[in-house]
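Can't paste images in this forum, so I'm doing it all in text. The chain is below; anyone willing to post the predicted structure tokens underneath?
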Amino acid sequence: MHRARLSRCLSKACRARNERATADVTEGGRGPEVDQREQERTDGAQKLTSEGQAEASRAPETGVRVEARGLSRHFGSHVALEGLDLQIEKGQAFGLLGANGAGKTTFIRLVTGVLLPSSGELTVDGHSPATEPAEVRQRLGYVAETSRIYPDLRVRSFLRFAGGARDLVGSGLEAAVERVIERFHLEEVAGRWIGQLSKGFQQRVSLAQAFLHDPPLLIVDEPTSGLDPLQQKEVRDVLRALRGNHTLILCTHDLSEARELTERAAILHKGRLVTEGPTQEVLGGNDPLALFRGEAAA
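Text version of the structure:
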């Protein structure tokens, strides 16, 4: 009897609650349970947004910072670079511009550790190429103006050779080779002789070898020199995709290439810095070529 009475009471309570909720909705209200669920969803969304913002703020920066302070390099009486102060930030696409003989290649050789500075300081992610060359080499990939690839090797064999030179071995080497083949769209030519490839594909192979160890810093010297317009577009598309994920130093005397691929730029003339700033501002004057002649911006 008590169970039957309790069941009837619960049934009446449920009907009354449902009637109140129905009345609320009919009269334009949302009902207390609906409001509560909606509030919970709102609170949850706000929490996810806050967590996402916090995660974004904790996300590690990509690339490395390159800094030169009073950097000079002399060859006897010849001044190749003099008193250069330059900061290239993490993840930045930076253009190093100037006419032939301006000092661009000298700067590259100092960064890669091929040359030692006559004076001043240079660091890559806090490491000196002069005193910590191994630490710097781990962090950079270099693509020379003239591709240093072997025409008598097949693409995949050459990439294995280049990976071995960077101390990659075994399954790690094979994984790295397959990764760059896919990244630089070399699947269709992976088994072909390098000497039989077009210049555009050869430049892609050169870029691929620089990325075998996935370096945070990529230095590219005149990447589209000698390529036809279609090949230039292919290479520029590859470089554009790197922006924000790696620090890119692009050495070029092609102003359109610098505008397209970089966010900041510096112009050198006879080893000295003429100007540095956002690329569109540096190259946005009436006569940007005057900067190549060493004339200060008006």
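Residues 162 and 209 are 6 Å apart (CA to CA). The longest helix spans residues 32-58.
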